[in-house]
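Exercise 3.2. Students should predict the tertiary structure of the chain below and write it as structure tokens, then compare their answer with the key that follows.

Predict this chain's 3D structure.
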Amino acid sequence: MQLANRLLSFKSNVFAEMDQAKKLARTKGQEIIDLSLGSSDLPVSPRILDVIGRSLLDPSTHGYLLFHGTRTFREAAAKWYQKKFGIAVDPETEVLPLIGSQEGTAHLPLAILNPGDYALLQDPGYPSHAGGVYLAGGKVHPMPLTAENHFLPVFEDIPPEVVQKARMMVLSYPHNPTTVIATLDFFQQAVDFCQAHGVALVHDFPYVDLAFTKQPMPSVLQADCDRNCSIEFFTFSKSYNMGGFRIGYAIGNANLIYGLRQIKTIVDFNQYQGILAGATTALMTCDDEVIQTVATFKTRRDTFVHALHKIGWQVTTPDATMYVWAKLPEPWQQNSIEFCKALVAQTGVAASPGAGFGTCGEGYVRFALVHEPAILKTAVDRIAGFLHT
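Answer key:
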């Protein structure tokens, strides 16, 4: 049986290779310290779990949930957004629940792109952004992110013939994997560019709360207050440690929300009503827990970066996210995949190779701060032994 040609775009998967490398290391007796996945190890608030638990005992929550049954959640999301960013949005036409923001960013290209249209994506960037474009039959034009440009794309460098065929641009700040923060002025430049060229501006915003500076993270809709061309994606995986619950939402331009909703009516119903109730509780009552989560990751960041500096690996201290984006030492700067394979094989420490996030990610490695400080120190001790052998 022959499968569809579109699957050819997904044959090479660096993270599948790393999963296999971790498996081999385990079979050889290595104790794995997995710093490769951005899956929070912190617990979900008992308040959230209590609401979900009580929902499980209510048979009225056990059936299919259609769009209009999500009104309470959408209203909570709109209120949270107005409180945080000072912008009023319509919960009926400008908010859409998602089964995780990754589901939304992967499905949205089906509502925007025709075969052959271009999507402008960050390189390095989150892998599912490209995956959704390929599923829609679109073409990816990578926007290089370099240290020289503070890991921000230079819109003037996009070739005119690509701009002419571009239908969407995807940004994500604070950025995974580089950890960089973007300013409101940058978002204004992006909005101006997209409006001038008829391009939908998609902002993936999972790390809205995970910033270690006093300056609040800007929303792209603060630069596009009338929601002329922009849509933003939120997730409960990072701020509320609910990765396994698969809950998020989109907010923004009503036409883009409508298009994504049309796709979702074909692909799925909505998330379980009890999980939506838990997410509503998170938005309305869990600000203190979010503050504690941020403080925890800041402590981990400081511990890990300080330990790397002590062994001579001079990495940049990140201002946001749950990651450290580290430029590889010689002789590994042109082979992040082999570095990560060798590291996990010899030490049990698993990291994500920069090449897995795009061509411009080569020469870097990403560490996820998803363990207690003592374990992070142990990981660095092992890394020191690996680098100095």
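Discussion points: Residues 46-285 form a domain with the Aspartate Aminotransferase; domain 2 fold (CATH 3.40.640.10). The first strand starts at residue 33 and ends at 34.
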